[in-house]
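Long-time lurker, first post. I've been practising inverse folding by hand and with some scripts of my own, and I keep getting stuck on stretches where the structure tokens seem ambiguous. Below is the full token string for one chain I'm working on. Before anyone asks, I'm not after the true native sequence, just a reasonable design that respects the backbone. If someone could post their per-position residues I'd love to compare against what I wrote down in my notebook.
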């Protein structure tokens, strides 16, 4: 039962060319990610720089495959893992996505490395729990990202005399004013960004406890409360540009930058893109707020690196993991990537503007933490794939009850 979802992922069409694996004859490390675009590549480049400084005789092979949500990369990776041809380390997400790799026996237990390096004492305890299975640690988290963020054009809201909405119904109401200005209320990207949007609507409409129950079987997807939240999602889509959705998250945010849209829902990798790549000033030209209805809640995801079973350059892979977990690596990476450190002992003074605000919320004991659907924290890959398929139909047809039933049925098939 547990292996089925991994095999289903491996059978997915590899829509990007598969990379030829590295030879084990020369000192190198092949690192597999989906960080290729603006706002992503810069963070990876910082880790590569630090790795080369610490390991000058080892070639760093960047095996990244493009695709904003990582779906293309994961399909290619699954094919390689099925063929027993793993990279030396690959990117994954803490939570249920990682658990799938563990249960299929394709990544190594890193508990001894955590113990020898003292990482158990410096990693955020909640995050440590989400990379641990049956008492064993399986990945090195390099960051904390936040999904429940509403990015907006400051000038547009000032001109319209609007403030970031506190509820999704308020956002829908703002559409009348924004439409009169010739501005799209909500910019949307490709299918994975629509999944990301849907999870934030569910979070805002249902609250953190009920939202979390969706992923554990404690909340019935068919219930009136959940269907009503999904119907709100269909109303949100009506004030968006879903009919001409952008190709990925960067062009989705470009609509905010050029003033043709007021809002966009996306994770905090946006900060790096808008500030580092486009040179915009936070809180002057653009800003961010919690997605409607989620003040005090942190919808988290974490990128983490693994040591695959059968890695050809195991020693160099461990050297890579040590860079990822180091104070220097986490600070260099996260200040470029727009994310927060997984460690609790980094230099907090480096995190300014948006990052300062977000770090304060992450460290606030009153903040409620939930996991992201779109980014691997709460749903096994097999179930998530079926949710994505059903969502494509839902976006086109708008039948909330039918979508809810499809998701509930898929849960029983893939996890029940």
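-- Answer (accepted) --
I ran through it position by position. Result:
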């Amino acid at each position: 039962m547990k292996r089925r979802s991994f095999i289903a992922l491996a059978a997915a069409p590899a829509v990007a060319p598969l990379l030829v694996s590295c030879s084990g004859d020369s000192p190198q490390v092949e690192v597999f990610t989906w960080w290729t675009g603006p706002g992503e590549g810069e963070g990876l480049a910082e880790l590569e720089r630090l790795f080369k400084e610490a390991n000058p005789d080892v070639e760093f092979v960047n095996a990244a495959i493009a695709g904003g949500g990582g779906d293309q990369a994961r399909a290619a990776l699954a094919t390689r893992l099925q063929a027993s041809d793993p990279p030396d380390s690959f990117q994954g997400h803490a939570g249920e996505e990682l658990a799938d790799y563990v249960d299929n026996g394709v990544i190594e237990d890193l508990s001894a490395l955590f113990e020898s390096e003292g990482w158990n004492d410096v990693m955020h305890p909640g995050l440590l729990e989400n990379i641990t299975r049956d008492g064993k640690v399986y990945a090195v988290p390099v960051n904390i990202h936040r999904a429940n963020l509403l990015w907006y054009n400051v000038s547009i809201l000032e001109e319209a005399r609007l403030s970031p909405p506190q509820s999704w119904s308020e956002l829908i109401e703002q559409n009348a004013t924004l439409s009169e200005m010739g501005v799209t209320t909500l910019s949307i990207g490709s299918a994975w960004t629509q999944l990301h949007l849907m999870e934030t609507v569910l979070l805002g409409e249902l609250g953190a406890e009920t939202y979390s129950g969706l992923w554990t079987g404690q909340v019935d997807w068919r219930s009136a409360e959940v269907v009503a939240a999904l119907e709100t999602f269909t109303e949100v889509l009506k004030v968006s540009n879903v009919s001409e959705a952008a190709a990925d998250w960067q062009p989705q945010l470009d609509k905010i930058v050029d003033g043709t849209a007021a809002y966009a829902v996306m994770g905090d990798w946006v900060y790096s893109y808008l500030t580092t790549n486009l040179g915009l000033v936070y809180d002057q030209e653009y800003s961010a707020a919690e997605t409607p209805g989620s003040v005090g809640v942190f919808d988290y995801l974490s990128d983490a690196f693994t040591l695959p079973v059968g890695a050809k350059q195991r020693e160099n892979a461990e050297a890579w993991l040590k860079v990822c977990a180091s104070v220097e690596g986490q600070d260099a990476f996260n200040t470029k990537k727009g994310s927060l450190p997984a460690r609790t002992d980094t230099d907090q003074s480096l995190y300014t503007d948006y990052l300062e605000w977000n770090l304060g919320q992450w460290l606030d004991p009153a903040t409620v933490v939930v996991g992201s659907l779109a980014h691997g924290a709460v749903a096994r890959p097999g179930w998530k794939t079926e949710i994505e398929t059903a969502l494509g139909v839902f976006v086109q047809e708008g039948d909330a009850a039918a979508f809810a039933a499809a998701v509930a049925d898929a849960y029983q098939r893939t996890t029940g």
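A couple of notes from the structure itself: Residues 1-24 have pLDDT under 50 and may be disordered. The first strand starts at residue 28 and ends at 32. Happy to go over any region you disagree with.
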